[in-house]
């Protein structure tokens, strides 16, 4: 029997506001444990929550990017449960009235678009971070109260690849919207997967298994693919899939049982009594949306329209909003947009990958890179010399003119009479190469170009030399 996977995702996105969701404590990643905490975060009696305006703006931005209906009233609820990561004994969240509902996004699989419907987007506060050891657990309350949005999809994905593409698209939206850094390795974007199997053609759902806190986009696909195979093996052997919560073990490349679920937890939601409903005016919602930076899809279209870039070049640049900013800055001082894309996508990216750095840390400024391209376009230097200059500029954080002087690179000779004289000398010295070329040995042309370059001490323009040789050889 063949099975179909039914997959739904819950994505938690930490918002990069300056302060927490309901307190004035700083929202800072990487600080010493329990140093970014306010009295409210620790549930001291008499403290009251206040809503972070920027967090609401960020939530509206993402909801609009996901084509959602945006609620013009902000309602918060208490989700009641007792656990060590929640000092208050409850979490302030949104239950019946999420800020965003009934949205969708489209993913591309093998050249075909697929729409994934999204049930809801709601605002809530994060819990504290737990560090588990063999015989004890440490609690860091710096994360307690950090603003979150939770994005809940409909169970409409069928493969690990679709789920991975969906998360990639969500991550792109929150990063380019400037609401989150989207770093899964730091926990600012976390993903829970709900997955079940059913026979093909069936409309009913199988037993749902949850995979918690997957911290890498590539692991999402691997975890789902493993879980599909695991559940299929159980069902084919006549067994029954248990309702469980599992985690993905990266080292073992498999999902591991965390706990068995029985009945659904009753969180006894009720309206948050300390936050009355807040009306969001049409102007507030419009300003939140209109102030959002360009999304990757919008940038992709602009790069193609303004710079005539190919799908391939534009997609590589759109992979990182900082690379987009670098390209836009460099494009102000060069018209060779294709060459600029080539340099960034090949040479610059090569350095970034080798050094494991961001383009914000790259030594060559956008203006200096475009100046290097202009030197090639004007035939002041050739492409080989340009790469010598590029390496020197990157190592010494300098401009191309200074690099050229330091390396002793002389500008190319474009004088056709001068180059013609050298071409005639070379042809006279190597008559056998003329015969070879006329007998179909094309490599003879490259040999002769090399001799012209050697005689000119590398100063002759190689294209002019090659064209002149070719013309002479065909006479």
Structure in words:
With about 475 residues, the chain is of the alpha+beta class. The strands form four sheets. Strands 2-6-7-10-1-11-12-13-14 form a nine-stranded mixed β-sheet. A three-stranded antiparallel β-sheet has the order 5-4-15, with no helix packed on it. Helix 12 crosses helix 14.
Figure out the total of helices.
15
Can you list the strand order of the major beta sheet?
A: 2-6-7-10-1-11-12-13-14
Q: Structural class given helices, strands, pairing?
A: alpha+beta
End-to-end CA span: 74 Å
- Computed Rg: 30 Å
Q: Approximately how much beta-strand content do the residues carry?
A: 15-25%
Please provide the count of β strands.
Answer: 16
Largest sheet: 9 strands, mixed
Q: Uncertain runs with pLDDT below 50, 5 residues or more?
A: none
Q: What do the pLDDT scores average to?
A: 91
Gross morphology is: elongated
Assign a percent range to the helix content.
40-55%
In short:
This protein is of the alpha+beta class and 475 residues long. It has helices at 53-65, 160-176, 217-236, 282-290, 296-307, 311-317, 321-331, 337-355, 366-377, 383-396, 400-407, 416-429, 431-438, 443-455, 462-474, and strands at 3-14, 69-70, 73-74, 77-80, 90-93, 100-109, 112-125, 129-132, 137-140, 147-153, 189-199, 209-214, 244-249, 254-260, 270-271, 278-279. It has a nine-stranded mixed β-sheet. Strands 5-4-15 form a three-stranded antiparallel β-sheet, with no helix packed on it. Strands 3-16 form a two-stranded antiparallel ribbon.
């Amino acid at each position: 029997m063949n099975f179909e996977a039914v997959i739904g995702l819950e994505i938690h996105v930490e918002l990069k506001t300056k302060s927490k969701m309901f307190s004035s404590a700083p929202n800072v990643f990487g600080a010493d444990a329990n140093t970014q905490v306010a009295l409210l975060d620790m549930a001291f009696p008499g403290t009251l929550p206040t809503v972070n305006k920027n967090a609401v703006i960020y939530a509206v931005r993402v909801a609009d990017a996901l084509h959602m209906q945006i609620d013009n009233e902000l309602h918060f609820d208490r989700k009641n449960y007792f656990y060590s990561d929640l000092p208050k004994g409850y979490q302030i969240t949104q239950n019946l009235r999420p800020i965003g509902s009934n949205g969708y996004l489209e993913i591309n699989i093998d050249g075909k678009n697929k729409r994934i419907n999204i049930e809801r987007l709601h605002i809530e506060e994060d819990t504290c971070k737990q560090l588990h050891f063999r015989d004890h657990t440490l609690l860091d309350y710096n994360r307690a109260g950090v603003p979150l949005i939770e994005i809940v999809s409909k169970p409409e994905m069928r493969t690990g690849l679709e789920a991975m593409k969906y998360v990639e698209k969500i991550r792109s939206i929150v990063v380019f919207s400037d609401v989150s850094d989207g770093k899964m390795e730091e926990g600012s974007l976390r993903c829970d997967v709900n997955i079940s199997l059913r026979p093909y053609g069936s409309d009913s759902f199988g037993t749902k298994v949850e995979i918690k806190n997957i911290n890498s986009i590539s692991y999402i696909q691997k975890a789902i693919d493993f879980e599909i195979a695991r559940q299929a093996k159980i069902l084919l052997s006549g067994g029954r899939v248990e309702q469980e919560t599992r985690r993905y073990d990266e080292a073992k490349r498999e999902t591991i049982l965390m706990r068995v679920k029985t009945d659904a937890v009753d969180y006894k939601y009720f309206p948050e009594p300390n936050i009355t409903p807040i009306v969001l005016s049409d102007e507030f919602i419009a300003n939140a949306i209109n102030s959002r930076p360009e999304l990757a899809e919008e940038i992709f279209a602009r790069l193609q329209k303004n710079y005539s870039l190919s799908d391939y070049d534009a997609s590589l640049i759109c992979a990182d909003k900082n690379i987009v900013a670098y390209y836009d800055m460099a494009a102000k001082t060069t018209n060779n947009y294709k060459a600029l894309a080539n340099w960034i996508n090949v040479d610059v990216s090569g350095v970034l990958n080798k050094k494991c750095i961001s383009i914000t840390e790259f030594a060559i400024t956008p203006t200096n890179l475009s100046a290097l391209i202009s030197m090639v376009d004007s035939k002041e230097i050739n492409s080989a010399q340009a790469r010598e200059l590029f390496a020197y500029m990157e190592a010494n954080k300098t401009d191309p003119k200074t690099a050229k002087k330091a390396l002793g690179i002389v500008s190319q000779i474009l004088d056709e009479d001068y180059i013609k004289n050298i071409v005639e000398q070379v042809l006279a010295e190597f008559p056998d190469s003329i015969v070879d070329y006329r007998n179909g040995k094309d490599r003879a042309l490259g040999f002769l170009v090399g001799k012209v370059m050697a005689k000119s001490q590398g100063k002759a323009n190689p294209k002019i030399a090659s064209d002149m040789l070719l013309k002479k050889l065909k006479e």
